DNA sequence: CAGCAATATATCGGATACGAAGGTATGTCG
DNA sequence: CGACATACCTTCGTATCCGATATATTGCTG
């Protein structure tokens, strides 16, 4: 499980953390929690779901027929919850590293970059 | 620029936020700021650098010869700094969304998920 | 001095995920 | 009936990433 999740996959797991949801509903939920910036395409969604089910991170929760249309619900597995948790921690560390370096940059207003300060051993 | 950065590319920009650095040095720096979890391979590094230079996010800062070996320094461009900043914000929002949903899950110990609560319009 | 490790560059091929587009089916609205 | 929205799924092309490999120079070791 050392393959880092990409954004669409991460958001799918995040959406499912709220509770079981069907495929088409995930498209709307992911759009909502990303502020309408990420719009999942069916190809991305079902490809990702197949992979996640195959990896045991997501399970099929059941099916339902509403107005003659099939709804297949997916649910986060315990392993999926653990993976999402670990991925979140990883991202949090990256965000912190980038934030501190960016703020240091702003504070210093980018001086002449002392290249003679010794390499990073 | 709506293509989200993958982790290796994000970490390269983060490393360069500290100051100019040469390719091989980036491998060590990225390893360091990721807690030795991400080890950049040459193929990833130079492929990413070419793409970043091509996209105007990174610029060649100059070259230096140390012990007969060429060192090509790269530097974060203003556009690269803006992109890194925007990407960091995006990740921060994703981390926050995942964190709140995961903690809500833990608190509720996963009840019966009210599926009849109405679809997300 | 021959061989190997380390530094530092670069390239190639395979694997995988993602995105765009299209396809099928059902129910509702005009 | 035709158009549209919901809801499922598939195929194809592209981009990114990783592993392996190649090249060149210095320095250490046998």
From TrEMBL, chains A, B:
Residues 98-121 are annotated as: Disordered. Residues 12-85 form the Transcription regulator PadR N-terminal domain. Pfam families: PadR. This is PadR family transcriptional regulator. The lineage of its organism: Bacteria, Bacillati, Actinomycetota, Actinomycetes, Micromonosporales.
